[in-house]
Input
Amino acid sequence: MPRIPTPVIAAAGLVGGYAVARWTKKRPLGGVVLAGAGAVAAREWQQVGGVKASVGLSTAYVAAFAGSHPLAKKIGAWPAVFSVAGAVAAASWAVTRGK
Output
């Protein structure tokens, strides 16, 4: 079975976590989606890029989640989530491409 690329996992975790929290009105449930995808992505980042890549990209993933909140106040919730998801996906691609 082909592996799902880590940029897709990370972006889906950020977007999916927000979507689940918003549509179910249960923020902890969105957190489960966010954390689950983050854990899968971190494992893949470690396998592909090593510990440094995994720690760096995991930090970026958490920072993106945290940063989406103040950004949402300026540009709106969905644009903020898509912006940070794209940034993390791009970072993941840059670090793990060709490996």
